[in-house]
Each structure stands twice: as structure tokens, then as C-alpha cells.
Amino acid sequence: MKQGVFYAIAAYFMWGLLPLYWKVFQAMGAWEILAHRIVWSVVFVAIIIVVTKRTRKLRESVSGAKMVGALIVCSLLISANWLLYIWAVNNDQVMQTSLGYYMNPLITVLMGVIFLKEKMHVGQWVSLALASCGVLYITIQYGEFPWVALSLALTFAFYGLAKKLVKLEAIIGLAWETLFVAPIALAYLLMIQINGTETVSALVWWQVLLLTLAGVGTALPLYWFAQAAARLPLSMIGFIQYLSPTISLLSAIFLFHEPFTTTHMISFSLIWGALIIFTVSSIRKKPASVPLKSGAPIKKEA
Questions:
Q1: Four-point Cα dihedral 300, 224, 171, 26, nearest 10
Q2: Among 252, 197, 181, which Cα is nearest to 28's?
Q3: For 116, 179, 195, 251, which has the most beta carbons within 10 A of its beta carbon?
Q4: What is the distance between the alpha carbons of residues 35 and 115, in angstroms, rounded to a whole number?
Q5: How many other CB atoms are found less than 10 A from the CB of residue 242?
Q6: Which of 102-106, 238-242, 296-300 is predicted least confidently?
Q7: pTM, entire model
């Protein structure tokens, strides 16, 4: 149990610090950063798979057109999510990324209702209504739809939906998802190199080193999350997941000095209220037939 809490906090803490990481490469374009992230993720994950002797498991994990199609969809969705996130961070929209990931659990539940015919209880409907009020309020006040936040939440929610069809170990899943888009990423890097528009050469040595570690920054928290999911009840992970957007929000306000107005406070408060109702009502609806026995963890598919 203690190990699971440590892994969950480590994963969400690292995800929360990602804005600080991507700000290092603010002079680069989002597409170029994304291409490097994909390529170095493939390299790092390949090393893990070889060292842990999972090469055969990687080959045997994909069978049938349905699985391949689901993995391609996962690849495109997570790549789009990464691109939006990197662009938002380097265009001073960190607060919107925080808003998006606060909304993500609620939109994920809505996806389950629409596409998987899951049923929502009263608390979840109230949560969605409150969150919708928060989005509507900030839209009316600023006259601009928070498209970054909603796009991040939607791409990640659809990614989670596609992952329902791909029940693979976290590292194996990431390997395939990055392998499918790696040729595109490499082609893009080659093209900007030929055109003389690449900007990585303008980086100093420590920035280049950090860029090559993008694969570690991508795979490591995912591995930690998988370890946490295998040791903790989903309700506890649900609490800890809000650590990531909270760190991003605090970074936006105190480190990047993005404005946090009364409008933001009201909108975020409505969404925070929605999350409190959502979490408490979800715990109360949790079946009583699956208690923890003698500290044994409840297993969950990562």
C-alpha cells in the first residue's frame, strides 16, 4: 500500500512538473519538440524492453486488424495530446492545461456513458453540470472558448477509450504507440534539417541533453503509474491524480506569472466543487464486496 502511494505521488508529481521541463525548449517549435519526444521515447523504451527481455512479448502482443487499428488510434490521439500540451506550455497557456486535466476525469466518465453505455449516478451528473457551468462562465466572461483545455481533456479521454481495446502492459503499449508514429517524426526531423529550419542546433549542451531525456520523462511516470495501479484502489488513485494539475496551476501563477483573475477563481472553484462531489460520490458507490484484506492490494489493469 505504501509503495503504491509512493509510485502514484511520484508519477503525478513528475507529470505536474512537465511545464517546467518543456519551458526549457521554448525557442523550439512544438512540432519539433514533439518529434524529438517520440524518437527518444522509442529509444528509451527499446532499451527497457531489451534489458528486461520483453522483445518476444512485444512481437506477440499485437494480433489482428482490430488490435493494430486501436493502437494506431492510440498513437494519433496521444501524439495530438502531447503536441497540444507542448504548444500550450510554450505559449503561456499552462493554466489552460491545468483546467483541461482537472476536467479530464469528468469527460472520461461521460465518454463511458456515450460509447460504452455505462450508467452515471446522480453525483456524477451533478459534477458534470457544475463543471459545464465553470467552462460556460469563463467562456462568457472572456468571450473566448477554452479550446486548449477542452482539446487536452477530449484527446486524453478518447485515448483512454481506445486503450479499452488495447489491454497491454504499460511499457509494451507505449512502445507500439511511439513506434507507429516514429517514422513520421523521423521524416519531419529530416525534412527540417534539409530545409535548414531546425532549431535544435541553437540549443546549448545541457538543453540538448535534457531533450534526449524526453524519453525518460515520458516512460518513467507511466511505469510508476502502472505500479501504483497494481497496488492501490482506484478511489485512492482518483484523489492523487489531482496533484498533477494542481502543480501546473501553481506553476502558472507563481512561476510563469500567468494572470489568475476573479473569473478564473470562480470557474476553477466550480470545477473543483464538481471534482469533490464526483470523488466522494464515486467512493460511496464503490461496491462493498471488494475490501482490502490484510493490506493486500486490489489489482487493476494498467
A1: 130
A2: 197
A3: 251
A4: 31
A5: 18
A6: 296-300
A7: 0.88
C-alpha cell at 253: 501563477
Q: Which residue do the cell numbers 534526449 mark?
A: 212
Alpha-carbon distance 101 to 271, whole Å? 11
Residue 72 to residue 78: CA distance in whole angstroms: 10
Q: Contact, 131 vs 103, CB < 8 A?
A: yes
Side-chain-facing half-sphere of 103: CA atoms under 13 Å:
30
> How many residues does the structure list for the chain?
302
Q: Which residue has the cell 489568475?
A: 260
Side-chain-side CA neighbours of residue 116 (13 Å): 16
**DSSP per position, 24-88:** TTTTS-HHHHHHHHHHHHHHHHHHHHHHTT-HHHHHHT--SHHHHHHHHHHHHHHHHHHHHHHHH
pLDDT tens sequence across 207-245 = 999 999 999 999 999 889 888 888 887 667 878 889 999
Asked whether 41 and 278 are in contact (CB, 8 A), the reply is no
CA-CA distance, 267 to 20, in Å (whole number)? 24
d(CA 292, CA 70): 34
CA dist 30 to 90, 223, 290, Å? 8, 25, 45
Backbone angles phi, psi at 27, to 5 degrees: -75, -15
